[in-house]
Specification:
Shape: elongated
Helix content: 10-25%
CATH architecture of one domain: Sandwich
CATH superfamily of one domain: Immunoglobulins
Structural class: alpha+beta
Distance between the termini: 63 Å
Largest sheet: 4 strands, antiparallel
Order of helices and strands: HHHEEEEEHEEE
CATH class of one domain: Mainly Beta
CATH topology of one domain: Immunoglobulin-like
Radius of gyration: 25 Å
Length: 186
């Protein structure tokens, strides 16, 4: 058997190389990498999100029903890698909206929304390919949003971190009770 393999390689190296590529390509799961490899660790450090940021000029109360009443929020969020570039992410978001009063350090919770981004379908649903920001239409259970001062908190729990690292962002805003635009993307 060995002799036949050596004869095949000597007669037709192209066939032998093709067989090697075919056999190597049959492994499932794509490229294999050792997670303890320093190059893999460096790659993950540079490409995974290192911070998230609520986009203050784009995040706003919106009408989900199209009636001008604030029935929820449209949250636009960026995920940035360690070099400051926008990047993709996988993880679980927690959004929390609470009231704010100037004299209070802790407000009362108005709403809480957990949002999972763990599948390609969820990525397509929440990520805008043109801007590369994430778009979260968050609907309130108790509508409409009353006028007042609010604090919106967002944190992302990354599944790749052994200690369940969390990235955090917050945004304070005032809503005066006026008509709001209709949710731009559903």
């Amino acid at each position: 058997m060995k002799r036949i393999a050596h004869q095949l390689i000597s007669v037709c190296p192209f066939v032998a190389a093709s067989l090697f590529v075919l056999i190597a390509g049959c492994q499932s799961g794509g490229p294999q990498a050792d997670q303890n490899d320093t190059q893999v660790a460096a790659y993950l450090e540079y490409t995974l999100p290192s911070r998230i940021e609520i986009q203050r000029y784009l995040t706003k109360p919106v009408s989900h029903a199209g009636d001008g009443q604030a029935g929820g929020l449209e949250v636009i969020l960026g995920a940035y890698d360690s070099t400051g570039d926008l990047t993709k992410l996988v993880g679980t978001f927690h959004f929390e909206l609470e009231t704010r009063r100037m004299s209070d350090r802790i407000g009362a919770r108005v709403a809480f929304w957990p949002v999972e981004v763990h599948t390609p379908a969820a990525m397509q649903m929440y990520r805008d390919h043109l801007s590369r920001f994430y778009h979260f239409p968050l609907e309130l259970e108790q509508k409409p949003l009353p006028p007042g001062q609010y604090l919106l908190r967002a944190w992302l729990i990354l599944p790749t971190e052994p200690d369940q690292k969390r990235l955090y962002s917050e945004y304070e805003f005032t809503y005066d009770g006026s008509n709001v635009p209709t949710l731009s993307k559903s």
